[in-house]
Design a protein that fits this description.
Helix content: 40-55%
Number of helices: 16
CATH class of the largest domain: Alpha Beta
Largest sheet: 7 strands, mixed
CATH topology of the largest domain: Aspartate Aminotransferase, domain 2
Strand order of the largest sheet: 4-12-11-10-9-5-6
CATH architecture of the largest domain: 3-Layer(aba) Sandwich
Bound molecules: pyridoxal-5'-phosphate
Strand content: 5-15%
Distance between the termini: 56 Å
CATH superfamily of the largest domain: Type I PLP-dependent aspartate aminotransferase-like (Major domain)
């Protein structure tokens, strides 16, 4: 056993699996020999063999007689997945806000099966422990609600976040962190810190509608970039855009983006950090799903490769611990001062009680266990959901196969309209999100996003079966 209590071969296998799944070891490429693996990890021949056997069992590696081990083709060529997106090449204004608000309200109506919102399952969150921490604080430190916190946040929470960020490859001091009201405020303040009304922001396509609304509210224009369902944004297209027009900022969700679930490979993260540095353009990196990957260890954030301070990392505990606490944070690099000033102007500071509750929770430990359990559950649900969609929707329907998070992006047949399907589903008390709200101009008319954060087992199976029937009827 290794220090962490895991079998050594499992750790080696996990690392190799990550490299294969992320595309760093491409399909068909030759993998290190058993001896090379022993040398690299300081392990015995039998441990190396066990690691390769595990990878073979997972279908990630092929052993070829007399030739060695190779990354399996199937690992990188999934079936029934949508292709790279092809959005409009010109920046444009955003027009889908109203629909997005209605959809949020509808998903919350009592009795509706919620396959719409990207809300985590409450049973997977440590809610009781958080409330106990909060209860203890209100009894022992009632003065917490009798004072203002600093605009940048409570020092204890900032210290805990700095410690915690080391896991995502970010080495930073607590003073570099600014606590916000959720990730959404971190994104809004980041955009306000780096761009002015009329500027263009480069984004993934499709992209989370909260990001689109924020761009719209600030009078900015969105330049949508082609995005691959597994690997994320097309960096060649980004580079071309940076070389040919003025881009004020880039705003991406490199880890398990919403709605595609794509996870940018390690080599792309390095290249992105370099591009940002070369062009001096700020990158706002939304890492809200970064800890919900199905494989460990997680990939480092793009921020970890940032030497120029041009990357503004934004995240929150909304998907992992408690969306209702509304605690997010930013690591705004060289924009920290402006960011902090904007936070002060906006709402003075984030409330102290939820900040200290989280600081105590993080200090006492347990985060890792909670997110691993949640990620395992989401993996099972996503796989079940994908199977159900392919079984019950019309032939030719395409579905993403994410390696983290809890949403699937479904490309319907051309005769099936995502908005009509969403409306028909609501009449049957099922909420799904139509694809149109993930693009500034209402593209993705034949797409829907389905979330399995809050549904599983028979409820999920029954819901998808009924959705499939509705899609067939169109
Ligand atoms: C990609 C992404 N960023 C940000 C948010 C908002 O996060 P928060 O609830 O912490 O403000 C969401 C929520 O769905 C999201 O999917």
């Amino acid at each position: 056993m290794s220090d962490s209590g895991e079998f050594l071969y499992t750790r080696v296998a996990q690392e190799m699996a990550l490299a294969i799944r992320s595309g760093d070891l491409g399909a068909g490429s030759r993998l290190p020999s058993l001896r090379a693996l022993c040398g690299r990890y300081g392990i015995s021949l039998s441990t190396a063999l066990q690691a390769y056997r595990q990878l073979e069992g997972e279908g990630l590696v092929e052993a070829r007689p007399k030739s060695g081990y190779f990354a399996a083709a199937a690992a990188c060529e999934p079936a029934c997945e949508p292709a790279m997106s092809r959005p409009s090449a010109a920046p444009g204004a955003i027009t889908v806000t109203r629909l997005a608000l209605d959809i949020l309200r509808e998903a919350r109506r009592p009795g509706v099966l919620n396959l719409g919102a990207v809300a985590p399952g409450p049973e997977l969150l440590p809610l009781r422990r958080l409330l106990r921490e909060m209860g203890a604080l209100t009894r022992r430190q009632p003065e917490i609600i009798g004072r203002y916190e600093l605009p940048a946040g409570n020092p204890e929470l900032r210290a805990q976040i700095a410690r915690f960020l080391a896991r995502a490859g970010c080495r930073c001091r607590p003073e570099e962190i600014i606590v916000t009201n959720g990730c959404m405020e971190a994104i809004t303040l980041s955009l306000r810190a780096v761009a002015r009304s009329g500027d263009t922001v480069a984004i993934e396509s499709p992209t989370f509608y909260g990001i689109l609304q924020c761009i719209e509210a600030l009078g900015l224009k969105a330049l949508e970039l082609p995005t691959h369902p597994r690997e994320g944004v097309d960096l060649d297209a980004l580079q071309q855009a940076l070389e040919s027009q003025r881009i004020a900022a880039i705003l991406l969700v490199p880890s398990f983006n919403n709605p595609l679930g794509s996870n940018m490979p390690l080599a792309h993260r390095r290249r992105l950090a370099q591009l940002v540095e070369e062009h001096g353009v700020p990158l706002i990196e939304d890492d809200i799903y970064g800890d919900l990957g199905f494989q460990t260890p997680r990939l480092p954030t793009v921020k970890s490769f940032d030497r120029s301070g041009n990357v503004l990392l934004c995240s929150s505990f909304s998907k992992t611990l408690a969306p209702g606490l509304r605690i997010g944070y930013a690591l705004p690099g060289r924009y920290a001062e402006r960011f902090e000033h904007l936070k002060l102007l906006g709402n003075m500071a984030t409330a102290g009680l939820p900040q200290l509750t989280l600081a105590n929770y993080l200090r006492h430990g347990g985060y890792e266990r909670v997110v691993r359990q949640a990620a395992r559950t989401y993996q099972q649900r996503s796989e079940q959901l994908r199977r159900l969609i392919l079984e019950h929707f019309p032939d030719g329907t395409l579905v993403t196969q994410p390696q983290g998070g809890f949403v699937l992006w479904v490309e319907l047949r051309p005769h099936v309209d995502g908005v009509q399907l969403h409306e028909a589903a609501l009449r049957e008390r099922i909420a799904v999100t139509p694809g149109v709200i993930f693009s500034p101009r209402g593209d993705y008319r034949h797409h829907i996003r389905i979330s399995c954060g809050q549904a599983d087992g028979t409820a999920l199976a029954d819901g998808v079966q009924r959705l499939g029937r509705l899609a067939h009827r169109q």
